[in-house]
Automatic annotation (TrEMBL):
Organism placement in taxonomy: Eukaryota, Fungi, Dikarya, Basidiomycota, Agaricomycotina
PROSITE patterns: GNAT
Species of provenance: Scleroderma citrinum Foug A
InterPro entries hit by this protein: Acyl_CoA_acyltransferase, GNAT_dom
Entry's Gene Ontology molecular function annotations: acyltransferase activity, transferring groups other than amino-acyl groups
Residue ranges occupied by any N-acetyltransferase domain in the UniProt entry: 173-324
Cross-referenced Pfam families: Acetyltransf_10 (PF13673)
SUPFAM superfamilies xref list: Acyl-CoA N-acyltransferases (Nat)
Record-given protein name: N-acetyltransferase domain-containing protein
Length: 333
């Protein structure tokens, strides 16, 4: 059999071979697998969803590309590969990625839909080079240069490592899932978080919509804090985990209100969330920007490969590249 691509416009049409490819590496597949699983329940008339798979000559699924959308906007192009890091030389990936790019070009009504691509670094760079040539739209630059890392029950560190709250500030804290009464506070932090992640800056209305989705789906936890007996409670930090599959949970947002920094709030909350999630999951994954000080927090909680102690299997570089914003329709994720 010769290598081939297959296109699917509804997730219920995705064959078992692709689901099995996702299941073999749920962590790396977190950008496609959880959403595709949910999308199987979408009505047939739901438009804007597209998956393209590349099957090699042995009929193995080696690449899956998604071009999908949700109520908050279009997602970037996500690409999952079953190839390990040693199998991502240009000679290994250029042909399949060109096939995916040409299939994508033929499936889209408007090339402006492709505003960014996120995948492991080698795949992103090669696909974007190919797409730029096909579309005539220049690569604008890096949106997100990140380390993909993980935490398990075996690596999660004890809470005794956490700094104590200063005794002279009369602080009280409470940690747990966000509830509907916290909507405005959670939305404020979602909006502030987006300002740290250009170009995906949210409006107040979009932040409220995202916060409501996270709360309704029980996918966001908050660290409440109060200074002084008669002061109102505030949200110091939030942690969202909104891409979850059978055995893996993905932390998608960690943010601390600048007013409450240097108190260990993010670390305290993230450790609590990880402990809860690991009761049902085998692994928690996340992406952290290269050079982002948050990596130190994640390292202290137990996420691997962030402490400068050498390479760790399963920890790798991921990259998002964006295209000329004057020629594309920017989405959000």
């Amino acid at each position: 059999m010769s290598a081939q691509t297959q296109v699917y416009t509804h997730a219920s049409d995705i064959p078992e071979a692709i689901w099995n490819a996702f299941k073999r590496n749920e962590g790396a597949a977190n950008i496609l697998y959880p959403f595709a699983s949910k999308a199987r329940e979408f009505p047939r008339e739901n438009e804007g969803q597209l998956w393209i798979a590349y099957f090699d000559q042995t009929e193995q699924v080696t690449f899956v590309l998604s071009c999908t959308t949700r109520s908050l906007g279009d997602y970037p192009i996500f690409i999952y590969t079953a190839h390990g890091p040693t199998e991502r030389q240009i000679a290994d990936i250029a042909g399949p990625l060109e096939s995916l790019a040409r299939e994508l070009e033929g499936s889209l009504a408007d090339k402006a839909r492709v505003f960014a691509v996120f995948a492991c670094e080698a795949v992103t760079r090669e696909f974007c080079k190919i797409w730029s040539t096909l579309s005539g739209i220049n690569i604008e630059g890096e949106y997100y240069d990140a380390t993909f890392t993980f935490c398990t029950n075996a690596t999660l560190t004890p809470s005794s490592n956490l700094r104590t709250l200063p005794e002279d500030r009369n602080l009280a804290i409470s940690l747990g899932p966000a509830e509907s009464s916290h909507l405005a506070l959670v939305a404020r932090l979602c909006e502030e978080f987006s300002k740290t992640s250009p170009p995906y800056v949210m409006s107040r209305e979009a932040a409220l919509q995202e916060a409501k989705i996270l709360i309704d789906n029980k996918e966001v936890w908050i660290h409440l804090i109060q200074e002084g007996d008669n002061k109102e409670w505030d949200v110091a930090s939030l942690v969202a985990a909104s891409r979850n599959s059978d055995h893996v949970a993905t932390v998608t947002k960690v943010y601390t209100n600048p007013r409450w920094r240097k108190l260990g709030c993010a670390e305290r909350l993230l450790r609590r969330v990880c402990k809860e999630l690991l009761k049902e999951k085998q692994k928690i994954v996340l992406y952290v920007g290269v050079g982002n000080n948050a990596a130190n927090v994640y390292h202290r909680v137990g996420f691997q490969g962030l402490g400068g102690s050498g390479e760790v299997e399963g920890v790798e570089r991921w990259l998002e590249l964006g295209f000329d914003q004057s020629r594309v329709n920017l989405g959000y994720w």
